[in-house]
Amino acid sequence: MLKIKSLRARVEDKQILKGLNLEVGAGEVHAIMGPNGSGKSTLASILAGREDFEVESGEVTYNGEDLLEMSPEDRARKGVFLAFQYPVEIPGVSNANFLKTAINEIRKARGESALDSKEFLQLMKEKMKLVEMDKTMTQRSVNEGFSGGEKKRNEVFQMAMLEPSLAIMDETDSGLDIDALRIVANGVNALRNENRSFVVITHYQRLLDYIVPDYVHVLYDGKIVKSGKKELAFELEQKGYDWIKEEISAVKA
Amino acid sequence: MNTTFQHNGTEVFVREFNKFKGAGNGTLTSMRKDAINRLSELGFPTTKHEEWKYTNISPILKGDFTLITDDQFFLTQEDIKPFLFAGKNSILLVFENGRFNEALSSIPENSEGIVLGNLSDHFTHPAVKSHLGKYAGYKDESFIALNTAFVNDGAFLYIPANGSCEQVVHILYLNDTRKHATVMYPRNLIVAEKNSSLKVLESYHTLGHINQSFSNSVTEILVEENAAVEMCKLQAENAIANHISHTEVNQTANSRFNISTITFGGNVVRNNLHIVLDGVQAEARLYGLYLIDGKELVDNHTLVDHASPNCYSNELYKGILDEHAQGVFNGKVLVRQDAQKTNAYQSNKNILMSDDAVMNTKPQLEIFADDVKCSHGATTGQLDEEALFYLRSRGIGEKDAKAFLNIAFAAEIIRNISSQYLQDRLMQLVEARLKKINSYE
Ligand SMILES: Nc1ncnc2c1ncn2[C@@H]1O[C@H](COP(=O)(O)OP(=O)(O)OP(=O)(O)O)[C@@H](O)[C@H]1O
Ligand SMILES: [Mg+2]
């Protein structure tokens, strides 16, 4: 589904990704952990098509197509979804209106007919239940005045609405209270199937208790430096990142 | 030599004036004469004039415009249908190339002294006699002088004390340029006496797209004690239209005036809005929206004159400028020495959609009282990149995503219009304008 080969990327003269490799198969859940500033959000942004980053070399294919060539909207239409670490507030644009446009663009790309207002409302009701979202939130402007946790929940709600085939979740668990964490995780689990893949970026093993990953990777200094099964997350939780840093410097030396 | 005014340009209008025969009595005739004399003394402002620094009006003076004064009308119901924004049953005054088209208008029977009609039929009305020309001084304003010289018709709305008109009164000005380049001099007088209320939509449109046009309007508004007037001035002429308007408002104690000035652009557009808060606790709200592209020039000049204590004014103007468009916002707030406890707020926000668009903003606060609360702020920037990326990352195309954000930006102004029907129609127009759909539904 997703293949990233020796990806190098920078912002101005700051090198952020330094030869990153990652392969995600259909239906798999990959967790990415790593210290602050290691490049996790940069990777997520590049996959979603943000233009602030300059890709210097490497390649990214998605279902065999060159992902880096596509506009952000085309990626979304082909099933890529990014749940943002910091969802932006857009005053004056209603959540419902925005989502209806988004969903119909994506349906159009899939060759499906547009949802009319009634069908859309029906779908919204259903998915709102999934993430136990309050009705009033969809009537408000996109993320405007939402609490940190509400913003994250709204990301998952949008994901449920848009039914992507590759969902990248950037710290969707940060800022969630214990109940919200469970709700969000249940929402994600309900979406898991053999065709849908997830890249879950997180700092906490706790989330992975709910969303059990197939693989866990450590992103450090712009590269995936260690990969393993879900047990790796436990090890990181207990030991932190120092032992990995030591391993790397040992290899270098 | 004084270069802030130029005299070449006035002769054409003087010549036209000598042929012109307006309606009305001797007082009017002498006012017209006085005004044309003043115009030829004064000349037209050049860009050396501080208030016209960014707005070069010489393209207007080069135009060869026809003033239509006969009583032949050509417009049909079909022609005006796209412009009926205030609802099918609204009160409607139609002006075809500046002349009142009675057949297309729909005015209720005058009741309880209320007059919703055209000015030239009411020159002898006491309110016309006492107020016409009183607020729009032409001594220093060339375009008020020009308008006054050609005063002939326009709307006269009069709500006597304690009266009210619930429906929106729509004053519809159409420049039919399909045969020639046309000029019109609309002159409106709106008088809301004590405790009365009124809602008005004043809109300007063009028919045809080859010939230029020039609308030079003056609207005088008196809002008496405890009265409330809500205005929407919509300029939706074509991209080659010229438009210079003066809206002169006088408010007395406890009155409320609310105006939304919406401008869709033109060759040269200048809106002058001048509000005098001439009684305690008067409140004025000024909203403005300009959506311009191509080589359009839109200049909004506002002056809020706090002449009494305890008054409130709040001004918010927003603009979206694309391509090579040029915008000017000049907002002056004058707080006179006696106007203690004044609250005056002003804000101007602009989005530049292209590197070639230019916005010139100049707030001017002149405060002579010491116990006041005043603030002003101005921002000009690009569309929010983060928000744009967010929308696109959900599958919304770049063009639509930009439209989403721009519509939201513009909606903050349109939302202030109290008639829901009018608000919805204006929102549709704004969307069409922003998506560059060049037509009315
Ligand atoms: N636009 C930018 N300009 C300059 N530096 C940037 C920019 N974006 C990211 N960086 C830098 O790149 C590095 C990686 O940032 P990134 O946001 O990808 O980290 P992260 O792994 O997501 O961290 P966290 O766990 O704190 O979210 C950081 O040092 C950051 O400061
Ligand atoms: Mg991050």
Describe this structure in words.
The complex is a heterodimer of chains A (253) and B (441). Chain A has helices at residues 40-48, 72-77, 95-109, 117-130, 135-139, 148-162, 178-191, 205-210, 231-239, 242-252; strands at 2-11, 14-24, 29-33, 54-62, 65-66, 80-83, 90-94, 141-142, 166-170, 197-201, 215-220, 223-228. With 253 residues, chain A is an alpha/beta fold. The mean pLDDT of chain A is 94. Chain B has 441 residues and is an alpha/beta fold. In chain B, 20% of the residues lie in helices and 40% in strands. Chain B contains 9 helices and 23 strands. In chain B, the strands form 3 sheets. In chain B, strands 3, 6, 7, 9, 10, 12, 14, 16, 18, 20 and 22 form an 11-stranded mixed β-sheet that branches. A 10-stranded mixed β-sheet of chain B has the order 5-4-8-11-13-15-17-19-21-23, with helices on one face. The site of adenosine-5'-triphosphate (ATP) has 13 residues of chain A, from β2 and α1.
